[in-house]
Amino acid sequence: MKRRDFMSAGLAGALALVNAKLWAAPGEAKLLVVMLRGAYDGASLLVPHASDFYYRSRPGIAVPRPGSADPNAAIVLDSDWALNAAVKDSLLPLYRNGQAVLIPFSGSDDVSRSHFQAQDLMELGQGGSGALDYSSGYLNRLAEALAGSQRAASFTNNLTPVFKGAVPVPNISLRGNMKINLPPRHSEMIASLYEGTRLSGMATAGMETKKRVSAELMNEMTESSRGAGAARAFGAQARAIAKLMRDNPAYSIGFVDVGGWDTHVDQGSSQGALATNLGGLCGGLSIFAREMGGLWRSTVVVVMSEFGRTFRENGSRGTDHGHGNTLWVLGGGISGGRIAGRQVAVSEANLFQNRDYPVLNDYRSVLAYLFARMYGLGSAALERVLPGAKADRYEII
């Protein structure tokens, strides 16, 4: 795999970006950050179709190879990467219209694999070493650095760490309580196959154990979402957010969280639980883009998750807590239609701790680049917003 579209520029890159023409006129830029709580599986969205190791590692959940007879085969983006067919009517058109950039091998330096710690660290915008400072989140610090020229709103049930800080930020919940549908259970059917045989007791005990373990995993999946709305219902929420950000200049920086991504069990591939979530999420983002109208050209959407998932599938046809992931940047005025950032071959030798994608692109460096281009922030301001982050150059806008 070639290392494309990337030149590490460090802090000098940030200064060069400030000297360049701003991407949008002051006060016109719109930013929406979408947090996928529960750690979505980026390898099932952006599929490394050139890697045989991918297909060997996921015999039950790999997205079908492009060119196969499967009608849900992945859709080729370039020689290395393909897109899950579940988003062919939503994310794919944005990508082909140059309005989406996908950055694999992204994430933070947190290695705890704890949903809550990793989510907090990412929202606070801090590095992974040392105790977390909960006094402020990076979007609150961004609003403070812009000194009133841009105002913020949190479209969540509760104000989360990303907006904690000195600047007052309204919290606007746009949804009611959502039920998460659990995967169907086949215990009774399996038990009936052994009824009246000497294996009946063993089969029943095995099914009860499976029920107990599955219930524990489902409880974790629900908790990891921290009350975030379900992806399948994101369309209505996205439409409301677009209307608020489009019609109210006060809402220029937004944040929303979407839950249900902790797919330990029955993850699926181009169909199933994960594909349904991806379809709902991307369908909502397409609605958001359309509803923003002419402002879509000066809007940037960043989609991220606290960490990725294990590269190999587990014994429950799912994946477990991992490390590197795929970050998205969407917008009507970006230089999209490509895969950006540092990359390595998708192989066993390049896995992090022999289990996960490595993190080669710090999410904070992507944000620092975007903030420099969108708002003209210099090195001192970027240091206050994202302490210690390197303003690498991604050529997104």
CATH class: Alpha Beta
- Please name the CATH architecture: 3-Layer(aba) Sandwich
Query: What percent of residues adopt helix (DSSP H or I)?
Result: 25-40%
User: How would you classify the helix and strand content by structural class?
Assistant: alpha/beta
Unreliable residue runs? 1-19, 177-187, 212-218
* Total individual domains: 1
What profile does the largest beta sheet have? 9 strands, mixed
Instruction: State which percent range the strand residues make up.
Output: 5-15%
Assembly state (oligomeric): single chain
Report the strand count: 12
Order of helices and strands: HEEHEEHEHHEHHEHEHEEEEHH
Overall 3D geometry?
A: globular
CATH topology call = Alkaline Phosphatase, subunit A
Distance between the termini: 24 Å
Radius of gyration over all CA atoms, rounded: 21 Å
Which whole number gives the mean pLDDT? 86
Helical stretch tally: 11
Description:
- Strands 1, 5, 6, 7, 8, 9, 10, 11 and 12 form a 9-stranded mixed β-sheet that branches.
- The chain has 397 residues and is an alpha/beta fold.
- α1 runs parallel beside α10, α6 runs antiparallel to α7 (200-224) and α8 packs parallel to α9 (273-291).
- Residues 1-19, 177-187 and 212-218 have low confidence and may be disordered.
- The protein has helices at 10-19, 52-57, 91-96, 115-124, 138-145, 187-194, 200-224, 234-247, 273-291, 363-375, 379-385, and strands spanning 30-36, 46-47, 75-76, 82-83, 100-107, 152-154, 229-230, 253-259, 299-305, 325-330, 338-339, 361-362.
- It has 11 helices and 12 strands.
- The chain has a single domain, classed as Alkaline Phosphatase, subunit A (3-Layer(aba) Sandwich), CATH 3.40.720.
